[in-house]
Amino acid sequence: MQIIHHLADMTRWSNEVIAGGKALALVPTMGYFHAGHLSLMRQAGRLADHVVVSLFVNSLQFGPREDLSRYPRDLQRDARLAENEKVDILFVPTSEEMYAPDFNTRVRVNGITDTLCGQQRPTHFEGVTTVVAKLFNIIKPHCAVFGQKDFQQLSVIRKMVRELNWDIEIFAHPIVREEDGLAMSSRNTYLSSEERSKALCLNKAIQHAKARFADGLDDSDLLISEIRDIISANSGVNIDYISVVDKDTLSDKEVIDSQSVLALAIKVGGTRLIDNCFMGSDSQISN
Ligand code: PAF
User: CA nearest 276: which of 28, 255, 250?
Assistant: First the structure.
């Protein structure tokens, strides 16, 4: 595995691969790899001849009071883990090259970024779409793999790709969970052991929602109030949102159906966690 830092070197490598008729898959990340990231890398390896993993803690997607400075970083460990997954290139650009001091361009998807996480984090998604657009242009992948845990991010990226006519196939990778059901996230490292056990209320809420839907419950207000009770039973846990939305438009659903997604965001102590589940079969959002 090669580590590339410079944008021009990355594009040169991609151009050669593409000229040789090979397919390229990209896994965009902010590093501090866990089993979820490694699983995305393996999926990318099945989809293309070569895999590029980008590792860039993207300042543009963090709000002024968010965790940019303390976001976990360990390049050596990440490089070791990526190498074991047969990644060809670990692309680790510098902030200076990605964002020149006068950088003033934003790629913004309107509408679906105003809801769910976008309500509390108004500039988050334009930070994500701007960096992903840059990565697509620098790396020129044929396909890219994103985790389904960031369900809204996935919808926003798909919409951007569609509306900007990029010939890049976007694949979703199912949420990877710890044995006890906590969705894997680099931010889980912020949790104390007490907070970590409280965070399990997310998976408890998801299991409850699936069971209630399977039993025939289709009233989203009722489901949301039941989930609110499950989560509120944990002191120190604050609910950001509990929503049942359409999987494509992200608009609220009054009646739950197989196209609905339950999306959750909570704060456990100072750590914001998200989770979601598709009320129909998971395969419907896998790509
Ligand atoms: O999901 C993430 O880790 C980030 O939002 C992404 C897609 C790498 C963009 O910085």
Answer: 250
In 109-236, DSSP assigns E strands to 143-147, 169-173
**What's the domain count of the chain?**
2
- Calculate how far, in angstroms, residue 267's C-alpha sits from the geometric centre of ligand 1: 20
> Any alpha helices (H) in 88-183, and if so which ranges?
95-98, 117-120, 124-139, 151-163
Q: Which residues contact 167 (CB under 8 A, 6 or more apart)?
A: 142
- Nearest residue (CA) to ligand 1, atom 6: 29
Q: What percent of the chain has pLDDT over 70?
A: 98
Same domain, 215 and 161: no
Residues 169-212: pLDDT tens digits?
Answer: 999 999 999 999 999 999 999 999 999 999 999 999 999 999 99
Alpha carbon 253 to its chain centroid, in Å, reads 22
Active-site pick, 34, 37, 142, 208: 37
Is residue 180, in this structure, part of any structural domain at all?
no
CATH number of 71's domain:
3.40.50.620
* pLDDT over 50 (residue 80): yes
| Helix 35-47 vs helix 75-84: crossing angle, to nearest 10 | 40
- φ and ψ at residue 156, rounded to 5 degrees: -65, -40
Examine the residue annotation and report whether 50 is marked as an active-site residue of this protein. Answer: no
CA–CA gap between residue 48 and residue 1 (Å, rounded) = 16
Tell which atom from ligand 1 comes closest to the C-alpha of 58: 10
Question: 56: domain range?
Answer: 2-173
What is the Å distance from ligand 1's center to 217 Cα?
A: 34
